[in-house]
Automatic annotation (TrEMBL):
Signal peptide (residue range): none
A GO CC term assigned to this protein in UniProt: cytoplasm
Domain GDPGP1-like N-terminal: 26-191
Gene Ontology biological process terms, A to Z: glucose metabolic process
Protein name, per record: GDPGP1-like N-terminal domain-containing protein
Any one GO MF annotation of this record: guanyl-nucleotide exchange factor activity
Length: 191
């Protein structure tokens, strides 16, 4: 369980400590656990072996040939005629993600201090938000933030989920960290 602070204090001594925790969150926790799952062979392909190059020009765009994502990702089980569809228990959904794919729970701290509790048991009744690997990653370190996993929500952005994602970006504290959103009709395979 990774518990983040929800309010910032105006104490300059905490800035250095916060920066240290941010490095630990992204480099040690997220990427360390992602690499652990890669070593265990939980991904459908090795995204780090994809051909990648920087496109010449002032923008520095990066192009990647990721054949594995197209050929080996889970097929979509939904009709793609509507972006927002009701949750369907019979189809693959985030509650069916393997336990070994879950990296940690992610939520607000009750005492407004950052905590990490490795292997914290998941309380099904509280429907925690979790961070899991994407077994068909687009890039190195690609993880999924799954809000309130046991509420069986359709894959859409709501205010609470959006704020949770912003807290995750803040914890990462890295200009290279990116957030993305995917839905049905935009190549998402899970609702």
């Amino acid at each position: 369980m990774y518990a983040f602070k929800t309010a910032k204090k105006d104490v300059s001594d905490e800035i250095a400590a916060d920066s240290e925790l941010q490095v630990e969150f992204l480099d040690s926790l997220v990427l360390g656990e992602w690499e652990d799952r890669m070593q265990r062979g939980l991904f459908r392909y090795d995204v780090t072996a994809c051909e990648t190059k920087v496109i010449p020009g002032k923008c520095g765009f990066i192009a990647q040939l990721n054949e594995g994502r197209h050929l080996k990702k889970r097929p979509t089980e939904f009709r793609v005629d509507k972006v927002l569809q009701p949750f369907d228990e019979s189809k693959f959904n985030f509650t069916k993600v393997g336990q070994e794919e879950v990296i940690f729970q992610f939520g607000a701290s009750e005492d407004n201090d950052v905590h990490f509790i490795p292997n914290a048991p998941i309380d099904v009744d509280s429907s925690p938000s979790v961070v899991a690997i994407n077994v068909s990653p687009i890039e190195y370190g690609h993880v999924l933030l799954i809000p309130r996993i046991f509420e069986r929500l359709p894959q859409r952005i709501d205010r609470e989920s959006f704020l949770l994602a912003l807290h995750m970006a803040e914890e990462a504290g890295n200009t290279y960290f990116r957030l993305g959103y995917n839905s049905l009709g935009a190549f998402a395979t899970i609702n």
